[in-house]
Amino acid sequence: MRRRVEPPRLARVYDVIVVGAGQSGLAAGYFLKHAGIDFVIIDRDRRVGEVWRKRYDSLKLFTPREFNGLPGRDMSGDPEGYPDRDEFADYLENYATHFELPILFGLRVDKVRRLADSSFELMLSNQTTLRARKVILAFGTYPSTIIPGMRNTLAPKVHQMNATAYKNPKDVPLGPVLVVGDGATGRDLAFDLADTHEVHLAKGRPQLTLPARLLGKSLWRWLEWVGLFDTRRYRTGKGLRRPIPSTVPQDKVLKARGVKLHPRLIATKDETATFKDAQTLKVRSVIWCVGYGMDLKWVDIPEAKDADGRIVHDRGVSQADGLYLVGRLWQSGLTSGLIYGAGPDAEYVVNVIVESRRVCEHADREGATR
Q1: Other CB atoms closer than 10 Å to residue 5's CB: what's the count?
Q2: Residue 125 sits in which domain range?
């Protein structure tokens, strides 16, 4: 009797793979599941919310709970209160569990490329691959910190770290510490260190600071009411700057804590920092809080990028068919990149995917009847 030969098993091809299980990736997963699309979310960490748990211990979100919920599930607790990092991380984890979102943990995507059949292949850190017809990049608004060239001119004895490496004052040797960058993170870290260290804060361009509450209402509610969240009016962010609410430590508060404020840092040499006013400071430690960047070399899809290697997109729809983004700054307006904007941006992208599928299915049916 001849033995039956089984045909080779074909690798599964997902309709959509979402890269990243942060708030934007989970929001995308919510809408994909409700649309009945076959998808999976991939994340390099081994638990939802880990990117938040890895941040500094004293972190509190500067948006209140009522603006931090994802689609279909609000944050519990005082809606006008401010959650800390662990509360929000737990909320994300519970969100994924509640909606039973399919997530593969502990997998870093090392490369995304287009195959000959127009599908996408994702090469993973465990030396395996996954395939999908469409890919949503949801790996975060701030995936990596920018480290300026000035760090290379400091002496080896100067302790240096970036904002994402800082946990608490125990991480920083005693002695004068310079925090470079006065955004929300830089101000938080300067405030956090003030009890135990001599702290200096190098400021940048003037910050747009608004009161956290006005006439009894949240700043963010006022911004919504006056139309600054309207994507039809403020999609590119040109001429606008994201405000910092007064819940972030302001100059007066920092000075009261003993933090010494300086203008922009312009040079470093050995153990000396030089500021724009020509004043100098001998430092023991430097914490770089000068912004965030994005390494997109692993996205090997040339048609999606401009000459500088940035992915070109319109509201998260890239110019490469089937490639999408969520969670990008100014993706659709002022709220993009904030937790509040994760849901609307993800919903728009998933709606585009659903419509694309509908058009393709209609074309297939038309072709079958001819």
Answers
A1: 6
A2: 13-143+294-368
